[in-house]
Structure formats: structure tokens, C-alpha cells
Amino acid sequence: MAQSAVLQLHPVPSTTSTPRSRRHRASAPFCRTRRHDSARPMASSTVARASAAAPPGLKEGIAGLYDESSGVWESIWGEHMHHGFYDSGAAASMSDHQRAQIRMIEEALAFAAVPDDAANKPKTIVDVGCGIGGSSRYLANKYGAQCCGITLSPVQAERGNALAAAQGLSDKASFQVADALEQPFPDGQFDLVWSMESGEHMPNKQKFVSELARVAAPGATIIIVTWCHRNLEPSEESLKPDELNLLKRICDAYYLPDWCSPSDYVKIAKSLSLEDIKTADWSENVAPFWPAVIQSALTWKGLTSLLRSGWKTIKGALVMPLMIQGYKKGLIKFTIITCRKPQTA
Ligand SMILES: C[S@@+](CC[C@H](N)C(=O)[O-])C[C@H]1O[C@@H](n2cnc3c(N)ncnc32)[C@H](O)[C@@H]1O
Fold it and tell me: What are the start and end residues of every segment in region (SAM motif I) (predicted)?
């Protein structure tokens, strides 16, 4: 029922006659599985069995959440499923929010100093946790690059490919169902490794970053934009009980495993011998985002879409105020981490 609600919102081509084995495989030859066959279709009900050390039900829950909610999100917010980037303290209107989401992509590229001259711009990009592929299509257009997106959600992969076809980008951007912790790509394939707000879903951050590093070409840039909890003080061994409790309520609604801090990511990147490691806290720059999402959920269109979508989406909407609380307390840190794979091993 949830999926049919999503499909009603969008003119996604009918898939009833397409065999499952072809439906969620990358269409662009460049993105086809070469390492192992984890790009075979993983319907939501089978995702949990599909590998790695995820807690039982986590991958299935993530796939189900995005299968259910992506159509609603797209109908209200468009193709980008990430925070917007705003000038600190600025007020913003709804049209500014979509611009702010594009700005988030541009700010991330600028922070990582990704070159855009013809000789050095990225020609191959992986979008890890791609949603419905908004970043991939943007980057494919910007750089003329080949982009391969992976997501756990079959609905997202299918919608990403439909949008790429509609935008004349099928030969440049392609989406498939695959696990970020076991990517279906050979070593050293991508000039730019992009993870926009998917890291928070990863149950094993070391494995997550090591997979990003594995598929990166020598000298490639890795960009991770993600939700973290604050760094611990030297005197602390863990967050405070009320902080853990707040995060647990957010995790339960959004299918998130344990969080880590920005300095945990830096430690992991160092342990993998990655270079030029940089981080920044962009929490102030994303402050207008959640109030705007709540406002859009409280419109007639927002409320009716939510009611049609299903329980996972409604549960997600109900905890949105907790995200604002987390930012205000200084507990949640919206973080960018960038680094480079060494030219030589
Ligand atoms: C908040 S959405 C971000 C989407 C997209 N990056 C964007 O900016 O529009 C999180 C995405 O991470 C994906 N994801 C979460 N865990 C994943 C995993 N283990 N492997 C692949 N994708 C994953 C979800 O399927 C979803 O597409």
C-alpha cells in the first residue's frame, strides 16, 4: 500500500512486465557490477539478508522507509533529499530552500576543492546513498561525468533512473540497489566519492569509510556530509544519558544505528592513510532546514501526502522537532569530512 501511494504521486513507468532481475540493475554499462554480484535486486523484504554486519532489520527498515517516503518528499521538496545550506542566521522562503539544497552540493565541492577545469575535473563519480539521484544528476551535468548511484531502496533506484531518462542523462547517471558496505564496484574506479547524508545510516563507520576509500581512484577526493554527535570532552567516556535518550528516539524513527563524532571520522580516515583530511561543523548553516520541513508538513498538501504515505513516514515526521532540539543543545553536529586517497599505495 505504501509503495502504491508513492507510485501514484509520480509517473514512474510501469514495471509489471520487467523481470526483477533486470529492474534494479544499473543501466549505464559503466556502473554495472564487476566485483561481485551484489547489484542483483534486493527487494525490501530481502535486504536484511543481503550481507555485512548490520543489526537485524536495519537495512530492511532503511529500504522500507525510503520506499515509502521518497515520493512524498519529492512531491513537496523535489529531487534532493538533504539539508539546505544557508548563510548563518538568514531567514529563508520555500523557493530559497531548494536553492539551499543545491548550494549544499556546491559548498561541499568547494570545501573539498574539487577541480572543475577540463583536465582535472572528476570524470567518474560514485554517489553512495543516492536517494532518487539528485546529486548524481547535478554532478553529471556539472562535470559531464559518469555517475553511479547506490541506495538500499528499490523505489529510489527506479525513480532515479526514470528521472535520468526524463532529463536525457541515462548514459551519464545510473542507479541501482546495493549496499554501501559492500559496494558492487572494483577497486580504484572513481575520481570523486560522494556520500551526502547517508553515513548516519551506516552500522559500521570503519567499514563504510574503508569501502569509500577502496572504490576511490588514486588521488580521488572523498566527500562525506553527515549527521554526527558532538565530540566528547577528554574527561568523558560517552554522551550524557539525556543526550543518548534523545538520539535513541531519533534513531528509532529514522532507522539509524549508533552515531559517531566528527573526530571519530577523522580517526578512521587516518587509520586508512587517507590524506588532506578536513572537517567543518555546518550546524549553523543548516538551522533553517528542519523548521521549514515541519512547516511544509503542516500544509494541506503535506498532511494529506503524509497520511497517504504510511506509518514509517509519519513516525519520521513526528520526531522532526527532536532534530531541532538536538541542534539547539549542541548535541547534533552537521558535519562535512573530506579527504583524498594517496596517489600511491
Ligand atoms: C537522506 S537519504 C540521502 C539521499 C541523497 N544522498 C540526497 O542527498 O538526495 C539517505 C540515503 O542513504 C541510503 N542508504 C542508507 N544506508 C545505505 C546502505 N547501507 N547502502 C546504500 N545506501 C544506503 C538510503 O537508501 C537513502 O538513499
Answer: 125-134
Identify the residue whose C-alpha is closest to ligand 1 atom 13.
129
Question: CA of 225: how far to CAs of 206, 276, 279, in Å?
Answer: 16, 16, 10
Residues at CB less than 6 angstroms from ligand 1? 62, 66, 80-82, 129-131, 134-135, 150-153, 156, 179-181, 196-198, 201-202
Strands 190-196 and 173-177, how do they pair?
unpaired
Largest CA distance in the chain: 60
Check whether 37 has a pLDDT greater than 50.
no
The number of the ligand 1 atom at minimal distance from the alpha carbon of 208 is 19
In sequence order, the 6+-apart residues with CB closer than 8 A to the CB of 183 are 35, 38, 126, 128, 150, 211, 214, 215
Alpha-carbon gap, residue 160 to 137, rounded angstroms: 9
Q: Whose CA is nearest to atom 23 of ligand 1?
A: 129
Amino acid at 310: G
Grade residue 15 by pLDDT with cuts at 50, 70 and 90. very low
Mode of pairing for the β-strands spanning 332-340 and 216-229: antiparallel
| 123 phi and psi angles, rounded to 5 deg | -110, -20
pLDDT at 240: 97
Residue type, 312: K
CA distance 309 to 244: 29
| pTM summary value | 0.87
Q: What is the pLDDT of residue 134?
A: 98
Residue identifier of the C-alpha nearest atom 27 of ligand 1: 131
Which residue's CA is the nearest one to ligand 1's atom 11?
Answer: 129
